[in-house]
């Protein structure tokens, strides 16, 4: 009798754990946390733009959807966006420090592609590296 | 080298055109929810848009990876299975606003027909809708919505989930354009 109860309990526990795994681990898993991810590429902002203007497909295969770090001078700051070296558009989830304007910074973010309308490379979920 | 020159030329001409209003932080949302099922919606807050008020030409570019979802798995499916954003990283619209006259724009806004070509997932389709265009200070605000179907852009919705994804996808946009 006692053995049966233990087995039932074990089965329920395993099923419960499996359900919880599917629910939190697959269906509602956490998204990427770019701020915590290690960058796969670190390069000057101007070099990133140059790579994109020379060959978009090749640049996409190198950088698209990757967490990258770019270095350069912040040339514009508006709301949640900092522009680095005139043509790397970095959008932040948290308002960035406006004091970084005209300073050289390293920004980590996810490369989401090239915008031909303005000739800019766009990064999102950015953070400024201290 | 040639591309850099073309880009420079483009920048130079866009500087000459003082009638050009632009934004880099336009909002484009899409929704394909079915009532009583989980919400299917994504939002892109970094769409670029340009409006030439002299000719009425309008261009919009939204990077597909820039669409964010509440549910991470949904974002993954959107990118990998539906729009295939590694292969087709952007959606673009090139079109015209009919009868636009900046001098007549008001704060309350008026309706204008916007029509043109929408390109996404490697397919181009003509779309047309009625946009509300208003002026607030020195900015022009363009908002509107239209519907498309995934089939029009060769996007296949698997039978298992087709009941949970609406046949018509509603796309809404809002651009606050500055000179």
Query: In CATH's first tier, which class of chain B applies?
Result: Mainly Beta
Tell me the series of helices and strands of chain A, N- to C-terminal: HEHHEEEEE
Largest interface, C-beta closer than 8 angstroms, per-chain residues: A-B, 29 and 28 residues
Q: Please outline the major beta sheet of chain B.
A: 8 strands, antiparallel, barrel
**Strand runs of chain A, count:** 6
Task: Give the mean pLDDT of chain B.
Answer: 89
What is the CATH domain class of the largest domain in chain A? Mainly Beta
Number of helices of chain A: 3
InterPro entries (chain B): Lipid/polyisoprenoid-bd_YceI, TTHA0802/YceI-like_sf
Organism (chain B): Flavobacterium akiainvivens
Protein name (chain B): Lipid/polyisoprenoid-binding YceI-like domain-containing protein
Domain Lipid/polyisoprenoid-binding YceI-like (chain B): 20-178
Descriptive report:
The complex is a heterodimer of chains A (130) and B (179). Chain A is built from 3 helices and 6 strands, in the order αβααβββββ. Chain A has 130 residues and is an alpha/beta fold. Chain A folds into 2 domains: 1-30; 41-129, OB fold (Dihydrolipoamide Acetyltransferase, E2P) (Beta Barrel). In chain A, a hairpin with a 4-residue loop joins β5 and β6. In chain A, α2 (45-54) crosses α3. The relative contact order of chain A is 0.16. The model of chain A has no long low-confidence stretch (mean pLDDT 91). An 8-stranded antiparallel beta barrel of chain B has the order 1-2-3-4-5-6-7-8. Chain B has helices spanning 2-16, 72-82, and strands at 20-31, 41-52, 57-63, 90-97, 110-120, 123-136, 139-148, 169-177. Chain B has a single domain (19-177), classed as Lipocalin. Chain B is built from 2 helices and 8 strands. The A-B interface holds A 26-32, 53-54, 60, 64-65, 79-81, 89, 91, 110, 112-120, 122, 124 and B 3-4, 7, 10-11, 22, 24-25, 45-46, 48-50, 59, 61, 63-66, 71-73, 75, 79, 85-86, 89-90. Chain B: This is Lipid/polyisoprenoid-binding YceI-like domain-containing protein. Chain B: Pfam families: YceI.
């Amino acid at each position: 009798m006692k053995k049966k109860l233990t087995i039932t309990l074990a089965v329920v526990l395993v099923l419960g754990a499996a359900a919880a795994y599917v629910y939190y681990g697959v269906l509602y898993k956490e998204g990427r946390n770019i701020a915590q991810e290690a960058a796969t590429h670190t390069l000057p902002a101007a070099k990133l733009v140059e790579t994109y203007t020379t060959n978009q497909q090749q640049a996409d295969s190198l950088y698209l959807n990757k967490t990258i770090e770019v270095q350069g001078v912040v040339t514009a700051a508006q709301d949640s966006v900092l522009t680095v070296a005139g043509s790397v558009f970095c959008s932040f989830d948290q308002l960035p420090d406006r004091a970084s304007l005209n300073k050289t910074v390293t920004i980590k973010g996810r490369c989401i592609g090239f915008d031909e309308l303005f000739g800019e490379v766009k990064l999102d979920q950015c953070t400024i590296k201290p | 080298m040639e591309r850099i020159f073309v880009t420079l030329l483009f920048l130079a001409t866009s500087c000459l055109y003082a009638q050009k209003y632009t934004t880099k932080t336009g909002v484009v949302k899409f929704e394909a929810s079915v009532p009583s099922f989980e919400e299917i919606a994504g939002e892109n807050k970094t769409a670029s848009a340009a409006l030439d008020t002299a000719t009425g030409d309008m261009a919009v570019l939204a990077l597909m990876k820039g669409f964010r979802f509440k549910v991470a798995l949904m974002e993954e499916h959107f990118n990998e299975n539906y729009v295939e954003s590694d292969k087709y990283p952007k959606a673009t619209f090139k079109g015209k606003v009919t009868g636009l006259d900046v001098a007549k724009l008001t704060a309350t806004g008026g309706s204008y027909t916007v029509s043109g070509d929408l390109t996404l997932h490697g397919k181009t389709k003509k779309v047309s809708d009625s946009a509300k265009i208003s002026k607030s200070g020195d900015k022009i605000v363009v908002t509107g919505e239209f519907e498309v179907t995934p089939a029009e852009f060769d996007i296949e919705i698997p039978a298992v989930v087709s009941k949970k994804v609406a046949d018509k996808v509603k796309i809404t946009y809002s651009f606050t354009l500055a000179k």
